[in-house]
Amino acid sequence: MTRVPIRFYQVGSFAVGNRLLEDEDRTVQSDPQRTNSIDSGHRACQGCGEALGARYALDAAMRATNGQLAVVNATGCLEVFSTPYPETSWRIAWLHSLFGNAPAVATGVAAALRVKGRDVRVIGQAGDGGTVDIGFGALSGMFERNDDVLFICYDNEGYMNTGVQRSAATPPAARTATTDAVGPEPGNVFGQGKDLPRIAMAHDVGYVATATVADLHDLEAKVERAMSLRGARYLHILVPCPLGWGSASSDTINLARLAAESGIFPVFEAEHGVVTSVTPIRRRVRVEEYLKRQKRYAHLFGTQPRLEVIARLQALADANIARYGLVNDETTNATLED
Amino acid sequence: METPFAITLPVGTSRANHTGSWRVERPVYLHRLPPCNNACPAGENIQGWLYHAEAGEYESAWRTLVEDNPLPAIMGRVCFHPCESACNRVQVDEAVGINAVERFLGDVALEKGWALPGPGPETGRRVLVVGSGPAGLSATYHLRRAGHAVTLVDGAAQLGGMMRYGIPAYRLPRVVLDGEIERILALGVQVRLDHRVEDVAAEREAGAYDAVFMAVGAQIGRRVSVPAGDSARIVDAVNFLHAVADEDPPLLGRRVVVYGGGDTAFDAARTAKRLGASDAVIVYRRNREKMPAHGEEFEQALGEGVTMRWLSTISSFEGERLVVEKMALNEGGFPEPTGEFEELDADALVLALGQDTDLSLVAEHPEISVEGGVVSVADNLMTGLAGVFAGGDATPADRTATVAVGHGKRAARGIDDYLAGRESVTAPKHELADFSKLNTWYYADAPRQRRPELERVRRQGTFDEVILGLTEQNALFEARRCMSCGNCFGCDNCFGVCPDNAVMKIADGEYEFNYDFCKGCGICVAECPCGAIEMVPERI
Amino acid sequence: MLTQIEGSKAIAEAVARCRPEVVCAYPISPQTHIIEAIGAMVKRGDLARCEFINVESEYAAMSVLIGSSAAGARSYTATASQGLLFMLEAVYSAAGLGLPIVMTLANRAIGAPINIWNDHSDAMAARDTGWIQLFAESNQEAVDLHIQAFKLAEALSVPVMVCMDGFILTHAVEGVDLLDADLVDRFLPPFEPRQLLDPANPVSIGAMVGPEAFEEVKVLAHLRLLDALEEIPRVAAEFEALSGRASGGLVSGYRLENAEVAVVAMGSVLGTLKDAVDARRELGERVGVLGVSTFRPFPEAAVTDALGHVERVVVLEKAFNPGGRGVLASDVALALAGRSVTSVIAGLGGRPITRASLERTVGRAVAGTLPAMSFLDLNDAEVAAERARVGASEGVAR
Ligand SMILES: Cc1ncc(C[n+]2csc(CCOP(=O)(O)OP(=O)(O)O)c2C)c(N)n1
Ligand code: SF4
Ligand code: SF4
Ligand code: SF4
Ligand SMILES: [Mg+2]
C-alpha cells in the first residue's frame, strides 16, 4: 500500500489525530464532523471492541464514498445492541435480515443499485460467526462472483451474542461456553478453525486485509483502499470483546495491540491472492503478555502454568511472523529475547 | 417513506437511551506534573512552553518560558538540565533535548529583540538586591514584574556574577549574557556597580529599602596548603577565570596542572588550553565515578586534549616539579594515601577545590544564622532578620545557575508576600506524571537531534562558543519529541477511541465528556498517551 | 394470440414482460427451465436493466432478493421443494421485512425419500411464512398470475408466491396467450418501494423487536395479508378488463349451482376434476367444484359464500400434515363449521390423479361413503403387508 508515513514524532502516526497535523493526515475519527455511523445510546457492553470497530470502519467508508453507502448487517451482537426497537443507533442506510445471509443480501443491494444506475457503495458486515461459519457459504459465493461488496468481519473470536460459544474463529485453548476449561485439554482444541483472510485470498478476490482496533490509521487506510476498488473485497478486523474474553473493559484496544504485536493476529493486506504489505510488529511481545490479561486463558496460568500449551500458542504466533514477515529491522523486543 | 411498524426505524434514535447510567466510574480530565517541570530548579513550565514550540509558535513558547526564567539563552547554555535526566522519554528512546530547545528560544528572542513582560504597576516599595548573578537577576526581574522598585548592587565592575566571572566565554558568549541582562534592566532597575555591601542592615536603612535580597554567591576560591617553593606559580581557579573574564589573563606557562574535580576545574583547564598551554592536566583525588563535574564538560575537555590524573593528590610543587601521591579508594569509597609518589613537570598550578561565600555583610547580625558557611533561610528564603532574604550559592542548595534562578523567583515571591503582609504559601503540586501514567505506544521512536559542536581545531586558540544551537527545523523536531506528560496535547485519542462516542471534541485540544452516554469503560484513560485523564468513582 | 409454448418458457416470458430488475435463482427440478430461459434473455441482452445472478444456494437466492428488493429493485426468483426449504429462513425474512418479491414455486414433493415429481408439500411448508400464495390451474393462469403477482406484491408490500404444478404445468406445452409488453406496462407501473435502503434518506431496516411490540408487528402483518383478500379480486378484475381473461381471484366455482356435493381443490388437478364432475353431472348427480386460487391469505368468506348451499364438501389436495389431516381441508372445515368436510389426499410425489379415480371419489361422496380422510389410489394391500411385517395392527384409510 502506498501510505506516506507522517513525519510527526510526538505521537508518530499512531494517535487518532493531533492538533499539529494537516487535516489529511488525521484520521476520520479525529474529525468532529465524522458520521458516527453508530451513535451513542447503543447497548454494547462497556468497552466493546465491535462497536468501536464498526464505527471506525463505517465512518471511514462514509468519508471514502462521500456518504454514498448502504450497509447490510448479519445477526449478532452488533445488530442486537444497535437496533432494539424502538431505537436504532445507526445513522446510515442499514439493513438486517438474518444471521447467515448478510453477504448475499449485500450482493442483492449492490445488484439493485447497479441496475438503478446509482453510485452507492455496499458494505456487508458480520461477526466472526456470521462470517466464517454460518455465513461462509454466502460469503464464498459473494467472493467467487466478485460481487461489488466490501465484506467486513468483526472478529471477536466467538459467538458472543448467544453467550460466548465457540466459532471456527475461536483460537486454540480459549475457553468458551462450548469449549469449557475442563478436562485434560481445557478450552478450544488445537488444529481446528478457519483462517478466513487466507480463504478469501484463495478466492482471488481483489482485496483482502486484516486490521485491529488498535491501529486506526492502518484500519482507515485499508477501508479507504477497499472503497477505491470494485468487486469483492474482504476486511477482517480483530475486535476484542471484554465479556467473552474476560478482559478489563479498558483493555480492549490494548489487547488488540498485543494480539498484533505478539504475531497471534497478523496484520496485512493482499491483492488478488498476493500479500502486498504487512504491518510490521513494532514492539514484539511474547504471547503470554496477550494471553494472561484474558480470563478465557486463565487455565493456562495460575499455580501450575500450562507451559506446553503456551509454547504451542507461541509457535502459532511465530509461524504467523514467519509466514508474513512481521518482524523487520525496526522491530524491538519488548518481552522477547531471541 | 411509509415504513413498517417497529421493524424499520428512523436513524440515530438511540440517543434517547442514556447509557451513562451504567457507569460506576467516570473519566475526568486532569493535569499532572510533568517530571521535567518537577525537576527544573528554575521551576519552568517546560511541557507548557514545549507545547507552543511544537506548533512553531516560538514567541508564545518563549513567553511561557520567561514567566519563570528570564534567562533562557543563558540557561540553554549553562544549565546542566536535570529536566532531561527526569524526562520520561528516556524510557522510550532518549530524553527530549529540552535545554537545546530552550537555548534556541532564547537565541531567537535575542535576535528578534522580544521584550520581557513589562513591570507591574509601581507599588512604591523599594527592594535592594545584592549580587547580580543569576539569583539576583532573576529576583530583580520578578520583583519588577510585581511593581517593586529594585536597586541592584554588585561589587564587580560588570553585572552577571559567576555567569560572567566564572563561566568561560566559549560556554557562554558575552553577547548572550549582556543581551539577557539588558532585557531585565529595560524593566527599569537602578544599578550600582563596584559597590560592596559591608553591612546588610545598615545598607537597608541608609537606602530606606523595604526588603533586601542577598544573592552574593560563592566567590572565594578554597585553598589548601601545598608546600611550594617561592618560584612556584599557584593561582586559584576563581581568580584565574575572573582575570580571564576581565581580559587580563595571568601567564601560566605551557604546562598547567589543575587540582580538583568539579566543573570549575574543567573550565580552568579548558581555558588554560585556549590561552596557549600545551599540557593541561587535571589532578583529582578520586575516580571518574566520584567526580562531581558534569559528564558533558568532562567529555568536551578530553576532546580538547585535557588529560586526567585520577586518584592523585598534590604533595608539593617546587620549581617546575610537582609531586603527586597516588591514592586508593577504601571500602567506603574514600581516597587513602598509598605512599607512592610521582613527579610531573608543571609551569603553574590552578587550584579548583571549591568556593566559599563572603558573608561579612551579615557578620554583625546574629539573627541571621550561618551554618556551614552559608545562610540559613526559611521556605520563602527569608533569613532570621525580617525583610532580609537570601538565595543562590550563599544558601544551602546545589550551586548551579539554575537553582539560583529558581531562588530569585522564590525570593521575589517571598518578598512580595512580605511586603503585602501575607503569609507565603506554596501551592500544592499536581500529582506526578510518572512513566506508568503514559501509554507510550503512541510515541514513535524518534532519535534525538544533537547540537552541532565547534570543530576541535577551532577550539584551541579561541573562545568561540563550542556548542552551537539547533536549527529551527531541528528545534521543532526536538520539541515535538515531547510526550506532554500529564497534560493533554490534543491527540484526539480519547475522542476517537470511545466506543460510545461519549467524548465531544469542541476544538483542537479541547474535549468534554458526555456523561449521558459514557459507560465508564476506561478505554479513553488507558489510551490517553500522556496520562491526562483519570477514572474516579462515580458518586452513587 | 395463442402461442404453443412450454409452461416454464411462458412463465419466463411473462416475468420478462414485468421488467424484473434482479433475478436470482438456484437450479432445482422442475423449476430449471424457467430460470434458464430468463437467464438466456438477460445474457442475450433482451432484458434491459436486469441482473441475473447465479448463486450458490436457494438461501442465497432469496437473500440476494431481500437485498435487491430493499434497495428498490423489482426482484424475482423461482424454486421448488428442497430449494424452498433451504431458503425458508429467508422466505420468512422477506415477508417480515415487507419486501414485494415474486417467486414461482414449481410444486414438487419433499424428501426424504427424494422425489422430483409434483405435489403441494412444498407450498404447504411455506404456508405460515406470511407470503401470499396463489395457485395456478393452467399455464395460461400461471402466466397471468405472475403478472398480477408483481402488482399485488408491490401494492401491498408483501411477497407473492405463484404455485404451479411441477412438470404437469411447467413442462407441458400448451397454447398460451402472452400479453403484449405494452399492455403489461400499462397494467404494471414501475416499482415504487414502500421503504428504501437509501443513503439519501437513511433508515434502519430489520430492527430487533422484543416482546413489547412483537405481537403488534405480527398482527399488523396479518391484517395486511388480509387486506390482500380485497386487493386480489381488484387486481384480477383490472387484469380481466385489460386482457379479457378471468384469471386468479380468490376462488372460482364450477357447476356449483344447486350442488349437493362440492369438491375443493387447487392447481392443475382442477381441470381433470372438472371433467370428472361433468361426468357425474351426466349421471344426474348434483356436484360441483370450487377451485381455490388464493391459498394464503385464506379466503374464508369467499369459500363460505361459494359453498353456502352445499351439504357435503370434499377437499382434494396434494399434501397433508402427517399425523393430522389435509391442510386445505382443515382450512375449509373451519370456514364451513358444522358441515361435513372429508379430506382426500391425492397425487403425492407425482402419483397420477386419473379422471376415473376422481369420478369414483365423487360418486362415493355423493353416496356418503367417503371416510373422513382417505388417500386416493393408495395401494392398501402393500401398506397392510408392510404394517403387518413390522407388527403394527391397523391399516390406513381412516
Ligand atoms: C440461523 C441462526 N442460527 C443461530 C442463531 C443464533 N445466533 C444469533 S447471533 C449468534 C452468534 C453471533 O456470533 P458472531 O457472528 O460471531 O457475532 P458476535 O455476536 O460475536 O458479534 C448466534 C449463534 C441465529 N440468530 N440464527
Ligand atoms: S458481548 Fe462482546 S461483542 Fe457483544 S456487546 Fe458485549 S463486548 Fe461487544
Ligand atoms: S472511552 Fe468513552 S465510555 Fe469509556 S470511559 Fe471513556 S468516555 Fe466513558
Ligand atoms: S487522549 Fe489525547 S486528546 Fe485526550 S486527553 Fe489525552 S492527550 Fe488529550
Ligand atoms: Mg463473534
Q: Output the strand order for the largest sheet of chain B.
A: 5-4-3-6-19
Oligomeric composition of the shown chains: heterotrimer
What percentage of the residues of chain C does DSSP assign to strands (E)? 15-25%
Q: Spans of chain C with pLDDT under 50 lasting ≥5 residues?
A: none
Structural class of chain B: alpha/beta
Bound compounds, each kind once, are: thiamine diphosphate, iron/sulfur cluster, magnesium ion
- What CATH architecture label of the largest domain in chain B applies? 3-Layer(bba) Sandwich
- Major beta-sheet overview of chain B: 5 strands, parallel
Distance between the termini of chain C: 48 Å
Integer-rounded radius of gyration of chain C: 21 Å
What number of structural domains do the residues of chain B give?
A: 4
Describe the protein's architecture and organization:
The complex is a heterotrimer of chains A (338), B (540) and C (398). With 338 residues, chain A is an alpha/beta fold. In chain A, 32% of the residues lie in helices and 14% in strands. Chain A has a single domain, classed as Thiamin diphosphate (ThDP)-binding fold, Pyr/PP domains (Rossmann fold, 3-Layer(aba) Sandwich), CATH 3.40.50. Chain B folds into four domains: 20-31 and 488-537, Alpha-Beta Plaits (2-Layer Sandwich); 38-114 and 440-477, Orthogonal Bundle (Fumarate Reductase Iron-sulfur Protein, Chain B, domain 2); 126-219 and 357-420, 3-Layer(bba) Sandwich (FAD/NAD(P)-binding domain); 222-354, 3-Layer(bba) Sandwich (FAD/NAD(P)-binding domain). The longest helix of chain B has 20 residues, at 401-420. Classes of the chains: A alpha/beta (338), B alpha/beta (540), C alpha/beta (398). Chains in contact: A-B, A-C, B-C. At the A-B interface, α1 and α9 of A face α17 and α18 of B. β1 (8-10) of chain B pairs antiparallel with β9 of chain C. Bound molecules: thiamine diphosphate (TPP), iron/sulfur cluster (3 copies) and magnesium ion.
In short:
Chain B has 540 residues and is an alpha/beta fold.
Jot down its keywords.
heterotrimer; A: 338 residues; alpha/beta; Rossmann fold; eight-stranded mixed sheet; two-stranded parallel ribbon; 11 helices; 10 strands; globular; disordered N terminus; B: 540 residues; Alpha-Beta Plaits; Fumarate Reductase Iron-sulfur Protein, Chain B, domain 2; FAD/NAD(P)-binding domain; 4 domains; five-stranded parallel sheet; 18 helices; 22 strands; binds thiamine diphosphate; binds iron/sulfur cluster; binds magnesium ion
